[in-house]
Amino acid sequence: MRRLFVLFLAFALTGCSGLVPVLSSTSTAAPTASPRVEVQTVVVTVLVTHVVTQTPSSTPTATLTPIPTFTPESTTLTAAAGTGITTPSATAATSTTPLASPAVTGTSATATLPADAGGGLFTNLTRSTDHFALNCQPDTVTFGVSTTNPNVTEVDLFYRMEDQVSGSISGWIDIGKMTSDQSGNFTMNFTASMVDRDRRSHKAWLDYQFVGLSKAGQVLGRSARIVKQVTFTLDCSG
After folding, report:
1. What is the DSSP string of 164-179?
2. Residue 50: phi, psi to the nearest 5?
3. pLDDT tens-digit map of 115-132
4. Structural domains in the chain?
5. What pLDDT, on a 0 to 100 scale, did the predictor assign at position 202?
6. Minimum mean pLDDT among 7-11, 144-148, 193-197: which range?
């Protein structure tokens, strides 16, 4: 019995020894490495664009350019009732047949008038000189005209400039009504400064024509176009 107990105890000790793990240097597990965290720094460059607002130093001023007025030469003489606005007609052609110079107030003109100068309406067409200038004397031409038609209450004087060098001719301009003595006689002092600035030249002919109007503004008749008889110059040497 005692021997059986010893064997049993020996057997028990042997079995327990098999359960004890054998530690070996080769079986020692390496410690697990901790994960490595890499931190990268990202540099972002921000470009800031400055918008420069330009403020004008002053408010722009609009420039107005006047549009030149062109008066075409008309071939018909018309007038609306009550307006008194007329244009010379080509039917009043200038005749080259000379007559004796008419009576003139003041200095007598040397050039003669055409045969049909009065156009059947006017008589005693006069002018004080055949030459006038802008910057010296004489600087005025006094025009005169008469009519026996009692219906003529207004006479307008038309003129145009004909350059004696280039031959260019301007359109006709109504310079305005002449002064009436209420007895059928009309006069006007036409000064050189009354010639339109755009129509002045160093030396030119001042052509002219008389137009008779009624009280209602109706055209009753016209004189002939009297051309190349009055010289306009800018100075005395012209």
Report:
1. TTT--B---EEEEEPE
2. -90, 125
3. 889 999 999 999 999 999
4. 73-238 (2.60.40.10)
5. 92
6. 7-11
> How many Cα atoms occupy the beta-carbon half-sphere of 149 within 13 Å?
21
- Cβ pair 181, 204 in contact under 8 A: no
Nearest to 106 by CA among 145, 133, 143: 143
Residue 176 gets the label, from left (phi > 0), alpha (psi -120 to 50) or beta, of: left
**Joined tokens for residue 192:** 């050189």
- Does the pTM surpass 0.85? The reply is no
Residues in the chain: 238
Residue type, 83: T
Backbone angles phi, psi at 163, to 5 degrees: -65, 130
**Closest-CA residue to 118 (of 81, 151, 155):** 155
**pLDDT per residue over 67-101, tens digit each?**
444 444 443 344 433 444 444 543 333 333 333 33
Q: pLDDT for 193-225, tens place per residue? A: 999 999 999 999 999 999 999 999 999 999 999
The most distant pair of C-alpha atoms in the chain lies apart, rounded to whole Å, by 196
- The beta strands (E) that lie in the chain are given as 122-127, 131-133, 140-147, 154-163, 173-177, 179-180, 185-191, 203-213, 219-222, 231-233
Q: How far is CA 202 from CA 83, 88, 97, 161, 205, in A?
A: 35, 25, 29, 11, 10
Position of tokens 């008779």?
A: 212
Radius of gyration of the chain (CA): 58
CA distance 223 to 118: 5
